Structure formats: C-alpha cells, structure tokens
Amino acid sequence: MASELGIDETGPLHLLVPVLPLEEVCLFPEASLKVVVSRPAILKTLEIAGRTGRKVVALAQKESSTPLVFDAKDLHAVGTLAEITADHPVPDGTHRVDLDGLRRVRVVEWVGAETLVAETAPLDEGDSGDEWGPAVEALARYLHTHADLRSFLEQQRRSAEPMSWVNLACQHLPITATARQRLLESDAPARCLRISRGLDALLRKEQGS
Fold first, then answer.
1. Which of 122, 147, 178 is the last residue of a domain?
2. 3-class SS at 7?
3. What does the alpha-carbon distance between residue 59 and residue 80 come to, in Å, rounded to a whole number?
C-alpha cells in the first residue's frame, strides 16, 4: 500500500489514483480530452488529484446513466492514466478540465466509497509492427472524405508517432461507445488491425456500397 496516492511501494508499476468517470467517451494514450465536471463525487476526485500529482484514471461508464456516487460495477476496468493539465472552476459550480492521456491501465483493486480510488497496473501496448501501416492508410482514406474531422484531428495531435494518430482517431471516430471501449482494451497491434478493417467497412457503409 502506498503512503500517499502515488507509487505503490508493494509494486513499483502500480499506482493508487482517484477515478474520473467518463460518459459516452474514452480517453486514449497520447490523446487529449476536455470534460465538464459537476457531480460532487467527481469534484472530490479533482480535489484529491490536485493534492497528489494531478493524476487520475479515466474510466468509461458502462451505461450512460448519471449516478451521484459511482462504484466498481458502473465502470469499465480498463482505462487510461491521465494528467490533469487544466482545471478551471466556473461560477455555476462546475469545473472545465483538460486531460492528457498517458498510458493504458487496468484496475486491480477498488478503494473508497463516495470517492473512488483505484490501484492500477499498466497494460503492455505491444509492438504495432507492420500493423500500423494499413491502419494509417485506412485512416487517410476515411479522412479524405471527412475534411472537417481531419482538420480537427490535426489540431489535436500531440505527437508525430503513427500510433498517436491511430489513438487520436480511435477517440474521435463516429463509432459506438462499446466499440470505442473495445479499441481501448486492445493492444497496439490489435487496435491497428481493428482500425484498418473497421474504417474501410465504415467508409463503404457511408458511401452506400
């Protein structure tokens, strides 16, 4: 157990971090996300994170409900360790929060009641190898017909690495929340393979062929 929220002394790669639930969206590594926080339990999460390194684990909700208090059954166990890069209080009591995704993690233990804290373990991304090439090509074909989305992704891109481009696309493509979570739960080779197959199928569907 860690003496404070941070590196767990019993496992150097395990972190104890407060949980930030996300509704209808996932945060991917090397991608950014802006969220508005209003629920008291999540505002408490921000308060804890502000005192302990500005790190949270961003976990997608399983359902699009809005419980006042979350527990483990409401959230997926695979999410993304994130850094809070901005936290702006608004006069109406909400907070506008900017998150930068760092790496995929899995929850290994839940802690807390009104405010969830999770012990997380990092997930191996694997080597995307030859899979990222077809994924980037499929993404280029899709974005060729969606200029607005391409412009948006180019503005959001934080890294020149191909996987950063793939991860950013996974976060913002017009797919279901379930499909997005499956992409997040896949390692880099599997994610690239899903993107290369899925985007061409999506493009054919949109074009009616």
1. 122
2. strand
3. 7
Which residues have a Cβ under 8 Å from the Cβ of 46 and sit 6 or more positions away? 20, 37, 56, 84, 87, 95, 97
- What's the pLDDT score for residue 70? 65
Q: Are 17 and 55 in contact (CB under 8 A)?
A: yes
Average pLDDT over residues 7-33: 79
- The average confidence (pLDDT) of the chain is 85
* Tokens at 100, concatenated: 């930068």
**Assigned domain for 112 exists:** yes
- Whether residues 19 and 114 fall in one domain: yes
Torsion angle defined by CA atoms of residues 139, 142, 146 and 147, in that order, rounded to the nearest 10 degrees: 50
Domain that holds residue 46: 15-122
Amino acid at 83: E
Residue 80 and residue 166 share a domain: no
- Among candidate residues 69, 94, 122, the one where a domain is terminated: 122
What is the reported pTM? 0.84
The 10s digit of each residue's pLDDT in 156-188 is 887 778 788 889 889 988 888 899 999 999 999
- Please, where are the H alpha helices in the chain? 40-51, 132-144, 147-156, 162-172, 177-185, 188-206
